[in-house]
Amino acid sequence: MSTRTLQLVLHYDGTGFSGWQRQPDRRTVQGVLEEALSRLCDAPMAAMGSGRTDAGVHARGQSVGVRVPDRWTDVTLRRALNAVLPHDIWVASSHAMRDDFHARYSAISRRYSYYLGTDAEAASPFRRGTEWAPDRTVDLALLRAAAGQLPGDHCFRAFAVRNTAPAQDNHRCHILHAEWNERPGGLVFVIEANRFLHHMVRFLMATMVDVASGKRPLSDVAMLLAAPTNDDVSAPAPAHALFLDVVRYPAELYA
Prior knowledge:
Blueprint: E1 3-12, H1 29-41, E2 48-49, E3 58-69, H2 74-84, E4 89-96, E5 109-117, H3 140-147, E6 152-155, E7 172-183, E8 186-193, H4 200-212, H5 219-225, E9 242-248
Parallel strand pairs: 3-9
Antiparallel strand pairs: 1-3, 1-4, 2-3, 5-8, 5-9, 6-7, 7-8
């Protein structure tokens, strides 16, 4: 059977999913998407994501690679999927790709954003599913000072869940951008890197908030970047305020 390679860019509300990765007896984004693809293609279909978002994490730029019968184009598959997918997943765009495209290994960077609610309305049911409202005041200048130490190449072993990377992995990530911005009702942290480790953004968030609220000194950021273990990192921030925004690929992979 002749096939073609497509990239799907997904938006999803992570609230009702046990993360991206397919799991037995659990509702996951990959599982729901593969079920829809298999139904449309009349055969089992695999969907390769750019990475595994945790349970509760949202996306508006999750990239997925699929190989489908060539009767499907990027336009027709997007339209058909959006007709059968549940309300909490939407295919925002689709692209024809070269056959050597790999959603995970071809990526050159990924960008996440994390939302803090700092006003009284952060407790609203319309916001509390997508923002973290810490029960303390945070200093924006300290948040920015902490984030300013992140760009560049560092070992993030202290900001990762233990034993989730291969034993030989050096846990190094190259941070291209890390910035705090003000927004109506609160703050948003935006970070882009060549790779991320398991819970890395959530560990960073919690540590920066602890620094900005006086629970730990600013010097702890540099200390943790040099630490051989995650023994001293802050407990990870909640998943529900984290969004996968963009996954970038070399232009030559687009057909």
